[in-house]
Amino acid sequence: MTAGASILAQITVAQQAPGLMAIFFAAAITDNILLTRFLGMCSYLSISRQMKSAVGLGAAVVVVTACTAALNAALYWHVLKPLGLEVSLQLILFIIVIAAFVQLLEMIVERVSLTLYFSLGVFLPLITVNCAILGASLFMINKDYQVVEGLVYGAGAGVGWMLAIVLLAGIRYRLRNAKIPAALEGPGITLIISGIMALAFIGFSGLIKS
Amino acid sequence: MALATLVVAGFCTAFAALLVVAERYLLNYGQCKITVNEGARRLDVKGGSTLLASLMGEGIFIPSACGGKGTCAYCKVKVLDGGGPVVPTEEPLLTPQELADNVRISCQVKVRNDISVAIPEELFNVREYTATVERIRDLTYDIKELRLKLIDPPEISFTPGQYVQLQAPPYGDNPDSVYRAYSISSPPSDESHVELIIRLVPGGICTTWVFTVLKEGMEVKFNGPHGRFRLTASDRAMVWIAGGSGMAPFWCMVRHLREKNIARACRYFFGAVAQRDLFLTGELAGLSKELGWFQFIPALSGKDQSQWSGERGLITEVVDRHVPCPDSAEAYLCGSPGMIDASIKVLQAKGFGEKDIYFDKFA
């Protein structure tokens, strides 16, 4: 995984860094981490039954993805790269940073505001191992983003993930009264819907002529 | 390589230290008081863990199948005060009625301050007991009576009809301990003892252990009391129907009623195949004579019973012949599922309401 990531990193080094707005919208829409890269599917499928929990979980993902992407960018460019360890250690250290950050954030949120904790904090343990968050950090390095760009890219990827789960929760709400063949109920129909949504998002990326 | 190891180890240590410090200062809720059932018990616990874990740690056994993940919804507890707002992970598991009644999923409620909870009496009383086997006696060729002397806690309080779960530790080819439910056959007045009536189930893990491994003087563990099959507090007439080790709750009930001088009219039908399956008949016949309100009616269903002068036929047929129209009577059934289902049919045909039939089916 690290070797592949580093090759990709070398390929993309040559690309010019685009503006922050472009990074954000590309991450959220055309390069949607959930619907075009299929990361973070597990919680996406299981927590999308209710709109309220989908929004809470989505918001938690936005915060965590943005913050960990910035932290990991700092770690990568200012610690690992100078030491020459970026290839061997980026994956393991990114995971450690994410796990520690999520735990710390949960504690802080619980202490600072119980209201915020109950709307957002309870979802934090669920996303410690969400691969979309690690994915955002790794893709960010592939794209050669620095700390600020990483923060924006992470926020964009998180917003994209939130957008996808909120849309799915909306569709599932509508489907409650629909007659679905017994064999397709639950995960079956959810996966089919996700596929159709993914097609639509690929349509977004088709708008951009490379 | 050494540098890489050092960096990883360094980061891990730094993060671990950070989290430990953060937990010490951020999640320190100090000592919290849990008041159970309006002061029936007061627990001093360290705040910060879940209500379920805190109660379990103090020896109050709340049922939980998922291990505190918030999915099984067995660990429901009424939180009267101090539970904080309902967590989103609880909402899908609670009905609107339960939400209105302050019922919470106790594994999702954190103890952050003093909390007041209401726990059903039967759960509140459940404890794990250590006991020694004081006596094992053969009641029939395949039924044994176990008399256990309680060590820790030294006393038990229960309602006649309830059961305990006996733990069979790993033995022979069985690598895990298993728990099996047995009704208590001794009366509640004997607080320091529990008697169980156990029939050998061919291939049964726990009963085989009782019959082959367990000896007098050995230490056993059980938890309880459990169960809603309980003698009610009313004064209505009763019909008892049992077979085999289904004797246990009734052997407890009749002695309890006698001790407490509760003269509830009661007919006890006990079904067996042959005479060798009957036990405690002498004692029960004696009680029938002594107590005007109690009548013991054993019946044999086997073909060749030339020596037998008592009732014959399936227990359901005997019940059908003897039980009059139930003006206001309760029925208590304990035995195999087949016997219970058949008896319920007979009783309902006689006019017993569904609510007046209590039963304890052997699983």
List keywords for this structure.
heterodimer, A: 210 residues, mainly alpha, 10 helices, globular, B: 363 residues, alpha/beta, Ubiquitin-like (UB roll), Elongation Factor Tu (Ef-tu), domain 3, Rossmann fold, 3 domains, 6-stranded antiparallel β-sheet, 6-stranded parallel β-sheet, 9 helices
Describe the structure.
The complex is a heterodimer of chains A (210) and B (363). With 210 residues, chain A is mainly alpha-helical. Chain A has one domain. Helices cover 76% and strands 0% of the residues of chain A. In chain B, the strands form 3 sheets. Chain B has a 6-stranded antiparallel beta sheet. In chain B, strand 13, helix 7 and strand 14 form a beta-alpha-beta unit. The mean pLDDT of chain B is 88. With 363 residues, chain B is α/β, with parallel strands linked by helices. Chain B has 9 helices and 17 strands. The chains are: A mainly alpha (210), B alpha/beta (363). The interface between A and B is medium-sized, with 29 and 20 residues.
Strand order of the largest sheet of chain B: 9-8-11-6-7-10
Distance from N terminus to C terminus of chain B (CA atoms, Å) equals 61 Å
Give the number of DSSP strands of chain A: 0
Please outline the major beta sheet of chain A.
none
What's the arrangement of secondary structure elements?
The complex is a heterodimer of chains A (210) and B (363).
Chain A: H1 2-13, H2 20-30, H3 41-46, H4 51-83, H5 86-112, H6 114-119, H7 124-127, H8 131-142, H9 147-175, H10 187-206
Chain B: H1 2-26, E1 31-36, E2 41-46, H2 51-57, E3 76-81, H3 96-100, E4 103-105, E5 115-118, H4 121-124, E6 127-138, E7 143-152, E8 163-168, E9 178-183, E10 193-199, H5 205-212, E11 219-226, E12 237-243, H6 247-259, E13 266-272, H7 281-290, E14 294-300, E15 311-312, H8 315-322, E16 329-335, H9 337-349, E17 357-361
Parallel strand pairs in B: 1-5, 12-13, 12-16, 13-14, 14-15, 16-17
Antiparallel strand pairs in B: 1-2, 3-4, 3-5, 6-7, 6-11, 7-10, 8-9, 8-11
Helix pairs in contact in B: 8-9
